[in-house]
Amino acid sequence: MAQARGYRLNLLTEIAWWTLYLSPPMRAPWMKTALSKEARSESFPGRLREYLLELTDAGARRPRVLDVGCGPLSPLAWGVDAGLLDLTAVDPLAHVYRFLLGAYRLDFPVMPIRCAAERLLDRFAPQSFDAVYSRNALDHVEDADLCIANICALLTKKGRFFFDGITREGTRQKWRGLHKHDFYVSDGRLMWCGEDGEAIDFSARHRLALVYQNQTSFRTGEWFRLEFERRAP
Ligand SMILES: C[S@@+](CC[C@H](N)C(=O)[O-])C[C@H]1O[C@@H](n2cnc3c(N)ncnc32)[C@H](O)[C@@H]1O
To answer: Which of 158, 168, 204, 229 is 20 to 30 Å from the Cα of 28, by its Cα?
Structure first.
């Protein structure tokens, strides 16, 4: 399930992409929204917001959230502005993103920490987070199975995993670059598939129970928004 070859080389394409598209003339509208303190509340994931508000009502401490593969502009920045969460944002290219944010003089409230999802347990203790969020990143990793196992290990017993991405992104991108993983949901189960076509039920493998899905069709290229909790062993 690990990418066979070229993962490190393919990370260069990610660096090139962000270097180009964070530059002022190329900056996409969603990036401008992310960079605006006034506008970015709109793009904060709604289900995560509801869940954090529930936790805040119920508990004494601020909920701890991990953004995996956060990129330079974590989609969770508004939660930091609003004091809604205690955010840790990780990405293997965090050092590059910190450089780019400085070079483009971008003021952003989230400074990513360098860590690949495969190495999360080297850095964080099990059951450290009330929620783990990941957007459009787990299809870019080297070993998706290990990344999901690590994410599960980091959740508190009642913790939630919020997973946003593009359906069958590996297929859509013709398995080029970092895109070596297909994700989709079938019969309420999170499915993973690699280029060789072997499909694996990640819900069964990682005890992930689906509590929300934004759509039912899961056609290639469609955005999915998923939310999971862990079943008891
Ligand atoms: C398309 S970007 C998405 C960034 C951000 N989540 C967003 O939605 O703007 C994919 C991200 O996955 C990161 N990535 C690549 N390999 C990874 C790994 N092994 N673990 C975690 N993130 C990884 C890349 O560095 C990149 O920042």
So the answer is: 168
Residue type, 198: E
Using the predicted structure, report yes or no on whether residue 94 has a pLDDT greater than 50: yes
CA atoms within 13 Å, Cβ hemisphere of 90: 22
Contacts of 198 (CB under 8 A, 6+ apart): none
Q: Write the CB contacts of 30 (distance below 8 Å, at least 6 apart in sequence).
A: 43
What pTM value is reported for the model? 0.97
Say how far apart CA 37 and CA 57 lie, in whole Å.
25
pLDDT band at 2 (very low <50, low <70, confident <90, very high): low
CATH superfamily, domain at 7-166: Vaccinia Virus protein VP39 (3.40.50.150)
CA of 134 to the centre of ligand 1 (A): 9
Q: How many other CB atoms sit within 10 Å of the CB of residue 29?
A: 8
Tokens 């965090």 belong to 94
